[in-house]
Amino acid sequence: MDVRSQMLEAAEKLLDASPDRDISTRAVCEAVGVGAPMLYRLFGDKNGLLSAVVDHGFDRYLATKRAAEPSSDPVADLKTGWDTHVAFAKAHPAVYRLMYSPSFADVPSTAQEALRLLREVLVRCAAAGRLRIDPDVAAQRIMAANIGVALSLVSQPETHTDPDLSTRVRDAVHDSLLVPAGKKPAKRADAPLPGAALQLAAVLRTEPTSLGEQETQLLLKWLDSLAVPSGKRSH
């Protein structure tokens, strides 16, 4: 393991052991057996070190997401995605708190990739006729809830003692966004059209067609517009 990786690993261990969730650059250097100039050369300063710890955390988190093979059931994949997110947070509590800390001015691009990967699963759910709303909106709601639960569990474990908390919240959030298997969405005067448009748009995004790129984009634009219930469309 190179010195940079050793310092990132040492920083994470020190963060996990720190009662005030803070570390000193001196402690990191001592743990690895190098001088402060090495840390400054590799990371610039303490903030640079912590930013690198965050990037390293997201890299490990995304590695599990990228390696996941889609199953034939996108809803099951959605549940698995939630559970692996929480499991990662529990396994790396200090790093996870940093990953989603409001103290960082810039959101890492890897955080956007995590949202994109979630959206891909939701597009598959929509293509299967299982999603009630737009995949982009659903992804934001699920990710916000997933992060909230994970942060609660790792930041205040003495308060959130229900062992089924994550599962209960997961199911409640998913139930609000997904159509039950074998059932159709609740009927409204204009429900069939938005639902059909949402499903067809999802299929176009996941399966090849004989349409050209411009034709596909134009059709998607129309379908995305039709997927919004008439009472909520802007005129």
Automatic annotation (TrEMBL):
It comes from the Bacteria. Gene3D superfamilies: Tetracycline Repressor, domain 2. It comes from Amycolatopsis saalfeldensis. Residues 24-43 bind DNA. Residues 1-61 form the HTH tetR-type domain. The keyword Glycoprotein does not apply. This is DNA-binding transcriptional regulator, AcrR family. Keywords: DNA-binding, Transcription, Transcription regulation. It holds the Pfam family TetR_N. GO terms for molecular function: DNA-binding transcription factor activity; transcription cis-regulatory region binding. InterPro entries: Homeodomain-like_sf (IPR009057), HTH-type_TetR-like_transc_reg (IPR050109), HTH_TetR (IPR001647), MT1864/Rv1816-like_C (IPR025996), Tet_transcr_reg_TetR-rel_C_sf (IPR036271). The keyword NADP does not apply. PROSITE patterns: HTH_TETR_2.
